[in-house]
Amino acid sequence: MKPFVILYATREGQTRRIAEHIQSALRDRGQTAFVRNAREARERLSLERYGGAIVAASVHVGKHEPEIIELIKSRRDELEELDAAFLSVSLAEASAEDSSRSPEARAGAAAQVQQVIDRLLAETGWRPRRVKAVAGALLYSKYNFIVRFFMKRMAKKSSLSTETSRDYEFTDWKALDAFVDQVLSDQLVRATPEDALAPA
Q: Which domains does the chain have, with CATH numbers?
């Protein structure tokens, strides 16, 4: 089977960590996988050599990274040919997954996450095979003063910690491993001739 490519866009680095975790999970399952930064790979990327793709992008101020949007627009047909999957990484998803919050608050956060994803899909016209929202991280140590100020306000609004002396990671790594298994299952079905799937 041809290798996978994981294309990512990030600001503080959590989405890169997620991309590298997926790469490791794929390799643990016997698959070759490469990680590519969308900002660096956009111009010279060739998807013909890959058998599968996963696109991962972080969300800031309600929008995905512009370089991932540009990449999807320019390579949409190729991504759909590969049955590529999409990961949307955000703090809103951390709120949606927080069992200590009320059901109404979690539902509101989940609706916000879906709205941001829907906006990207509408803007690009892309139809990924799978879409998964992933909780990101509050990396206070990596923010400058201005970004820290705004992230602290956002965290307070989302009932996340505003204590800036440490970083907070909300990513569910086991859920990502399950996602990798689903993507591999999709690829197996895609690679199996239709007549082999028909009932005997």
A: 4-197 (3.40.50.360)
